[in-house]
Specification:
The complex is a heterodimer. Chain A has strands at 3-5, 10-14, 19-21, 24-26, 32-38, 44-50, 56-58, 64-68, 73-78, 87-94, 102-103, 107-112. In chain A, the strands form three sheets. In chain A, strands 2, 5, 6, 10, 11 and 12 form a six-stranded mixed beta sheet that branches. In chain A, strands 3-9-8-7 form a four-stranded antiparallel beta sheet, with no helix packed on it. Chain A has a two-stranded antiparallel sheet with strand order 1-4. Chain A is built from no helices and twelve strands. The mean pLDDT of chain A is 92. By secondary structure, chain A is mainly β. Chain B is mainly β. Chain B contains no helices and eleven strands. In chain B, the strands form two sheets. In chain B, strands 2, 4, 5, 6, 9, 10 and 11 form a seven-stranded mixed beta sheet that branches. A four-stranded antiparallel beta sheet of chain B has the order 1-3-8-7, with no helix packed on it. The radius of gyration of chain B is 13 Å and the shape is globular. The N and C termini of chain B lie far apart (37 Å). Classes of the chains: A mainly beta, B mainly beta. At the A-B interface, strand 5, strand 6, strand 10 and strand 11 of A face strand 5, strand 6 and strand 10 of B.
């Protein structure tokens, strides 16, 4: 069965520091991969997606993610974190048997001033 | 372009009642999916509608149902509410659908609280 694992429940970084959020997936075929961000009281906003091609994808707000098939990973990165990046981040894989998105449990990001 | 609109934003109900939530997708989007978000279970897929037909369904009891209208607007109904139904219900729309290969755009959700 398809699944997504985000090993880190909560991460705290200092403003201006680099960030990497981990995501591992289990999927039998070529996955469609997504990262979403959710601010408190709001819905999910799409940061970036990977369907095929270049394994390094650029997204909005200065985020990027790298698809590594050999490691079944799709980690999210940002070179310099801003206080406004504090939110919860969800990795998701598409193309499931039911045609829906399968989400990880999320990683909550806190940013220290 | 207007985003996905969900109404109402907040609802308080008591056990045994029923509730209807509404979702208006992005103009031109024909696929609407519903998700339940809780602290314990995370984001779970409820069902997806495409062109007024339920195409996919998650593992939820029959108390959870939905429909889609010809203008692609969708409603979700939960009957005989239980305390465990307290959650944020998110609606997402996409231009395609069914294979999870289209980005889904989410509304801000309806926060349902059961007393």
């Amino acid at each position: 069965a398809q699944s997504v694992t985000q090993p880190d429940i909560h991460i705290t970084v200092s403003e201006g520091a680099s960030l990497e959020l981990r995501c591992n997936y289990s999927y039998g075929a070529t996955p469609y991969l997504f990262w979403y961000v959710q601010s408190p009281g709001q819905g999910l906003q799409l940061l970036l997606k990977y369907f095929s091609g270049d394994t390094l994808v650029q997204g909005i707000k200065g985020f990027e993610a790298e698809f590594k098939r050999s490691q079944s990973s799709f980690n999210l990165r940002k070179p310099s974190v801003h206080w406004s990046d504090a939110a919860e981040y969800f990795c998701a894989v598409g193309g499931g048997s039911q045609g829906n998105l399968i989400f990880g449990k999320g990683t909550k990001l806190s940013v220290k001033p | 372009k207007a985003g996905v609109t969900q109404t109402p934003r907040y609802l308080i109900k008591t056990r045994g009642q029923q509730v209807t939530l509404s979702c208006s997708p992005i103009s031109g989007h024909r696929s609407v999916s519903w998700y339940q978000q809780t602290p314990g279970q995370g984001l779970q897929f409820l069902f997806e509608y495409f062109s007024e037909t339920q195409r996919n369904k998650g593992n939820f009891p029959g108390r959870f149902s939905g429909r889609q209208f010809s203008n692609s607007r969708s409603e979700m109904n939960v009957s005989t509410l239980e305390l465990g139904d307290s959650a944020l219900y998110l609606c997402a729309s996409s231009s395609g659908g069914g294979s999870g290969n289209q980005p889904q755009h989410f509304g801000d959700g309806t926060r349902l609280s059961i007393l």
